[in-house]
Each structure stands twice: as C-alpha cells, then as structure tokens.
Amino acid sequence: MHVVTVDDIRAAAERIRGSVVRTPLIPAPWGDPERPLFLKPENLQAIGAFKVRGAFNAISHLDPAVRARGVVAYSSGNHAQAVAYAAATFGVAASIVMPEETPTVKVDATRSHGAEVVLCAAGQREKVAADVVARTGGVLIPPFDHPDVIAGQGTIGLEIVEDLPDVATVIVPVSGGGLASGIGTAVKALAPGARMIGVEPELAADTAASLAAGRRVDWSIEDRNRTIADGLRSQPSELTFTHLQRVLDDLITVSENDIRAAVREIALRAHLVAEPSGATALAAYRSRDTPPGPTVIVLSGGNVEPALLAEILAS
C-alpha cells in the first residue's frame, strides 16, 4: 500500500498546473464571526467538480505508450466527467461505466467529452468496468482507490494552506475518501494545528460507522442510494480508509434537510451552484459547533439536475 505524502501532492500540483483551475478561497462574511468562513469552490472547475485534479494527475503520470491504449473509469458522475475531459485533452479514448440511476446531467456531460458511456445496474460498476478493460485494453483510472488520484485531489489542500496559512478547520465531504485523504495529507503536513473534519449524509454514513468500529463497515448500496447526495454513495477502500484514519479529527453526519438547506444557502448567499454532495460541508458547519478560527468548507461540485435545484430553491 502506498500512503500518499505531501511530496506526492506537490509533484501532482506540478503535473496538473495549467490543466485545472486554481480555485480561489472566497470569504463568506455571512458565516459565524467566531468561525470566519471561507469557501473553496471546486464547482468552478471545467467539469464542475474537484475530480478533474485526480484524473489529470493519474492520466498524466501514465507512460505515454500505456496512455495511448485509452482509459476506463467507473463513476456516479463527477469522476466520469473528469476522466472523459482529461482523456479528450490527451487525445486518448475513454470508456466510462455509470450506474443507471446517475443524474442525466452527469451522463450527458460525460458523453459531451467524447467518451463511450456504459450504463450498469446499481452495485455493478466495478465488475462491468473490468469487462470493459478486457474488451478495450484501456487502463483503469479508479475514482479514489489510487495514490495518483488521491495526490491529485490533495492539491486542494496545498492551495488552502497557501491562501490561508492560519486555517483552523477544513471541512470536506467524504464518499470513497480520496478527496479527504488527499486534502488531509496536505493540511496535516503544512498546517499541523488545523483540524480536518469529514462530513457524510446520515443516510450514507458508512465511514462514520467504520471509524467508530476501527475497521471498514459495509452498508448496502440500497441504503446508500437513499441520500439526495448522489456523489457521496461510495464507500472507502482499504487505501483511503487507512488515510482517513490518519488525517480526520472528526466526522459529522448531516440530514437530508440540512443538505437541502445548504444548497439553498450557497445559492442565495454565495451566488454559487452546489450539488447536494458539494453542499454537505456547509451543512456540517451549520449543524455543529466546530472549533473557533478560520474555517474552510470544500464545495466539491456543482453538477445538479436543474429540476432538483429549482425544487430546492423553491422549498
């Protein structure tokens, strides 16, 4: 097992420089004065989510001859778009396996980058992706279970500490765990006094259960699919869980109503579009008294179905 280091993340930052947006740290004066609030808006990436960082790092790190065979990915949406976008940039073929329940906006966006999309039943992504690898000869770029993907996501942590050296708390959504693993590794190395807090929906709180048990605890896909936060329905791998155990100081779970309220607040107060998964960090900030001091919430993505966004804003 390769545990990612801050040096891996620095190398990733060099590889992806110029290929991804260095998102700003936006002060939110409407936050709690005791916990000054800053937003890291990864919804401003070209594909609308942070996943582009890990995808570009992993694909750029491949040997050119291997990369030329094409790439394969499985994802509920944002990683799918990221791999499709990065593959198109490198001029290689991409085949993406997506669950049938994936929001249409994410399927259409993935196809718009020229990728082949293969739809599959719930819980079958990995199996179908293995079949696609065998058929195409492409290289699998997993959504989180890979050191290069984790290191790419960790570049967000580098940017946070560069822009806010006295950061006290960083709140990050947790699904498969690649984002929190990477950001946490960078933040703990460069701002060791800062607290790393993960956040999950109550309806997909497998990581919270796993951290409490000291081992990975399985939740059924049917249980995890209940949450509106469709990007947070995956479970950590052995690799990411090892990282999460090292870097997370706490994990907060939030209700579906908390998530909807956070989507609405981000739209009306920050004038940004957040998908439910991307809004969970604000939901955690609002639902729990986190430590005092400058607080960064990672708005991980903004790919939300227009009809769902309209429903949330009208409620």
TrEMBL record:
EC class (word): lyase
GO MF annotation terms: ATP binding; L-serine ammonia-lyase activity; magnesium ion binding; pyridoxal phosphate binding; serine racemase activity; threonine deaminase activity; threonine racemase activity
The keyword Lyase belongs to this UniProt entry's keyword annotation: yes
GO-annotated biological processes: D-serine biosynthetic process
EC nos: 4.3.1.19
Residue ranges of domain Tryptophan synthase beta chain-like PALP in the record: 19-301
Catalysed reaction equations from the record: L-threonine = 2-oxobutanoate + NH4(+)
Keyword Iron-sulfur: no
PANTHER family: SERINE / THREONINE RACEMASE FAMILY MEMBER, SERINE RACEMASE
Biological role: Catalyzes the anaerobic formation of alpha-ketobutyrate and ammonia from threonine in a two-step reaction. The first step involved a dehydration of threonine and a production of enamine intermediates (aminocrotonate), which tautomerizes to its imine form (iminobutyrate). Both intermediates are unstable and short-lived. The second step is the nonenzymatic hydrolysis of the enamine/imine intermediates to form 2-ketobutyrate and free ammonia. In the low water environment of the cell, the second step is accelerated by RidA.
Protein name: threonine ammonia-lyase
The species this protein was found in: Mycobacterium yunnanensis
